[in-house]
Each structure stands twice: as structure tokens, then as C-alpha cells.
Amino acid sequence: MKTCFYYYTIDNMKKLLCTILLAVLPSCFLALDVPDSSKAAALGETAYLKNEFSLFANPALNYRLKDLRLKFNLLSCDSNFYSTANLGFNLGDNTGLAFGGAFTKNAAYGISLSKKIDFLAFGVNARYLAKKYLDTVSGSAFDIGIAAELKDMPSFAPDKILFSVNNLGDTTDLLGDGPSVASTKFGVNFSKLGIGLDAAFGTEFKASVSWDYNMEIINIRAGAIFDKNVRFCGGLGLLMGEDELCYSFSIQPNGTLMHQLSLSVELTPSKTTIDNKNKELFEVDLKGNIKDYNTQAMEYFQAGHLSEAIALWKKVLQLDKANDFAQKYIQEAKEVLQLKIETAKKTGEEADKTEKWDKAIASYETLQNILPEEKQFSEKIISIKSRLIEAYNGGKIYFDDKQYIKAIEKWQWLLERHPSYSDTEELIKNAQTELKKGSQEKDLLNKYFKEAVEANTKGNLALAVDKLNKILVMDSTYEPAITFLASLVKENFDAGLKYYGQNQYEKAMAEWKKVLNLDPANEKAKFYINEAEQQIKDKITKYFREGIESYNAGEYLKAIDSWKQGLSTDPSHKEMNEYIVKAMISQGILLYRQDKLREAVSYWENANKINPNEEKIALYLKRAKNKIKMLEELEKK
Description:
- This protein has helices at residues 4-29, 36-41, 270-303, 306-319, 324-353, 357-370, 375-400, 404-417, 424-436, 440-457, 461-474, 479-501, 505-518, 523-552, 556-569, 574-593, 597-610, 615-636, and strands at 68-77, 80-92, 95-103, 107-117, 120-131, 137-149, 160-168, 182-189, 193-201, 206-215, 218-226, 230-240, 243-251, 257-266.
- The chain is of the alpha+beta class.
- Strands 1-2-3-4-5-6-7-8-9-10-11-12-13-14 form a 14-stranded antiparallel β-barrel.
- Helix 7 packs antiparallel against helix 8 and helix 17 packs antiparallel against helix 18.
- The protein is elongated and about 135 Å long.
- The relative contact order is 0.04.
């Protein structure tokens, strides 16, 4: 963990180093000289986007200065040295001011001012040039530059475009090989890659191209200079937070290798460093929050609390708009939630319609939680509950008036709609106990028995069974109910045997299932149901195999007939549905070739009903119908 003492020590070491360089370098380099052509080659031709080789280069970029920044350039060419120093600072959030000087027998001093407005930055450099070597000449030169920062661009598009015109008005030839040298520089910067183009106009035309690739803490730079020959240049930069150390080289026209060492440091970095550290800590906290939100949201998602999960993932996107995990699961949660809503609506409406009010209430409460703004679900819940309360209280009134039969009927009506409603079952038992003390129990048993017989006569076996069960709950020895129940079991069992003997297995199973409703423990009914199911499976397998044999033999009609019989027993049989479509298509093709177009269309339309996604059917139908239409038009003519 880096402490405040660590940052304090680093800051002071930087200041000490810069002080030594400011004091020592000018006096050391005043007596040294570098050929003019070498200096010209060093003025920003390589790594233009980083401006390592020139005194200011594109002035528009100086608006990015932070606090107080110092940059040194030290060049070595053929045992001679050349140095520049730039000092820059901010005049505001988007305004930069810089001073610079070059130190040899000749000298250059400059000032640079830049301003950023919205996404554009503008700047101007003004330099005083004093040539003392060989001839004493002085003059001035200007640079103008612009930089555009492009935001919200596609990943393949540049994020910065730069342009400058440099060395305007120079009459000293200090900056180049001859007087009136001007150069234009154009740069395009992507997220990690920068490309620069330079063109110089003087005694001779000269151009260069360079690129700069950012690898987080290392920059790799390379370029080529085009004049009479092609020469290469390049470099390597080391990024240390806000500071940079860069080595570069270029091959001169005479084949000499020029080296440059550049150091850019921030003299008052304490605030910036602390801000960066705070930013790092904030990003760590942010990542922690995002991780916690994602974890909690996933727990909600897995537990079925989809609205809560979506709300948390939306918080993640507020912190990190590009979070793929949150985006993916929000979409998935919304799809599951929509399916849940549709299922709950369907279940609630069906349960309400069939008066299964316990299920209806559960579904409407689910919808109310998911869609609290929808008032219709709370209104339906209130309506159902009010009817249940009314029946519950009505039974109590009858009970208090000793109308036990009516109380039991009212509560049983309630339990049929909501089987677990409050203490209704206990109240029914209390009413039945009171009935046994008087003569009303027998009347109720007789009433239920009569209703059971009437229900069976009308074909409502389920209601008849319900009434008989109520009788046996009250009195398990009630002979008419026992006898009648046994007769119903025998009647339905015998009907099942009759159908079974006629190979009508589905009807036989339906009768034996009625037996199990009357007598759930009936082992013979269970046995015969299993036997019938096996017979049905064997029957389907037989039809399927017969169809395959006919299809392979080219007997498509016979195959269709076999599969139709199989599908009449099991309409959802996947393989038979697939093969019957193939057989219908093949039979249609056979008829089409025989010019029986309408019959072919009939088979293809039937196939299309079974599988509307089969593209070939639509093609065949279109072709046949067009031919039919053409033939009809010919007949008219």
C-alpha cells in the first residue's frame, strides 16, 4: 500500500531533478552546436502526436496541461548535443500557457497559448529565433494548430483529429535548411493507435509519416522520412503515471544516427496524484459495488424475485453502462417476467371462471406484486374475498340459528371454491356433531344421496362421487351410499372390459379411470389401465413401422393411411407427423407429374397444415397454382 510519505518523497525528488537540469543544462550546451539539417529533422517529424521533438509543435494540445509541467529534450548527433526545455501550466480548466527555449550557440525562445471550446481546441505559438553561428540573424516564427476530440464514435472510428501549420514567417533558416520553411502536420488518433503525416516546404519538399501505438505503460513509435531518400525513425516511451520518459532516433541524410532523450514531468503533481489515487480507490469501490449488486441480483433472479433483480441490474448499468452481464440478465429477467405475467393471467382467469378461487387469488396476488400500477388485479382479489367472507359469515349465522344443514351446505360451498379457507373444516365438524344430537343428520344424508343419484342420471359422475363421499364422511355405515358406490364401480369396470375386448383401449382406460375416482385403491382398474397403455404403445409402433415400409416402397397413400391411424391414437407423435408430411409431399409430386394438379395441391395443403414451416411446400403450391391458372386462361382463349 503506497502511503502519503511515498508520494511526498517522489514529488520532492522530481522537483530536485528538474532544478538541477534547469541550472546545469543551459550552461553545458551553450558552447555546443548541431547542424541545421539535423535540427530540422528533429522538429516533430517522428511521433507527431506526442510532440516529443519540437518546441511546442501543435499549440492546440497545450490546453491539456495540468498544474505545472516541465519537459526536457536532449538530442545527440555526431558527438554534438542540443536541448530544449518547455514549462507549461493552466490558466483555467480549458486554457494552457507554455514557455520554452532551445539552448545551443543558436537560440530559440517561444510562448504558446491554447484554448479549448467544446470539442475543439485552438492554439498559437510565437517564437523568437536568434542565429549566432556563422551569421548573426534574428527573426520570428509562428505555428497555428487545431485539435478535435470526437466522442461517442464507433470503435473503428478515430477519437481525435489534429492539424497544424508550423514555422510560418521564419527568415533565419534556423529551423530548417533554408529560409521561408513551412510545414503542415496532420494526425489521426484512435484509442491506442496514432498516425501522423508531415510535409515541409522549403528549398526541397520533404514529407514524413509516423505511427504511435499505446500499450498502457509503453508507447512504441515508428516512422519514415521521404526526401531524396527514404529514412527511418522510431522510438520507445515509458509512461509513469502523469510522467513520461522517451527515447527516439532518426537517420539523417548523411547516414548519421540522431538520438533523443525526452523527459516530461509534472512539478506540482501532489493534487493530481491524490486525485488519481482517489479515482483508483473510487474505481475499486465501484467495482466492489457492481460485484455486490450483480451477486444480489442473481440471488433474486434464481429465487424468482425478478422485479428486484432487474432493479439491481439497472443500478449496475447506472454505474457501468457497458456492463454486459447486467444487460444480458436484464433482458433474460424481462423475458421470464413477461412469461410469468402471461401464465399468471391465464391461470387466474381460468381459475376465476371455474370458481377455483384459491388459485385465482394466488395468481392475482402474483400479478399485483409484479404490476402494482394495475388496479384491476386488486379489485378482482377484493371481489373474490368478499364472496368468500359472505359465505363464511352466512354459515355462522345458520349455525347460531341451529340451521346446521344449511350451515354445512354454505361452508361446503365455500370449501369447494377455497379448500383451505380459515377454520371452515372445523366448523363443518362442529355442525355435524350438533346434527347427530338431533334428527337433522338423517335428513341431510338422504338429501345428499338423492342428489348423488340425480347427478349420476344426468351423467355428472364427479358430482355424484362428491355427494357420496360427503355422506360417508358423516356416516361411513350409510348402506344406500355404500351399495350405490359399489354398483357404480362395477358398472364402469365392466364397461372398460367391454371396450378392451373390442380393442378400443382409449375408451376402456376412460372407464377404468372413473373407477379410480370412485375407488382410488382399486388394484384391478390400475392393472388394466397399464395393460391398455401398453396395447396402445404397441398399436402405435405397429402403424409407424407399416407406414415406414410402405413409404420406402414408394406406396405413399398406404403409408399415409397407416400414419393417420397411428396419429388418431397419438396426435402428438413427432416422428409420424414428420413422415406423414414427407409422404404427402411425395404423393403430391407424383400427382403433379401426372398433371393431376388439383389433387397434388390438396395433398400439399394438408401437409402445410401439419407443418407450415416446411419451405418446399410453399414453393410446390405456388408452382402448381400458377400452372392451374395458366391452363384456365388458355382454356378461356
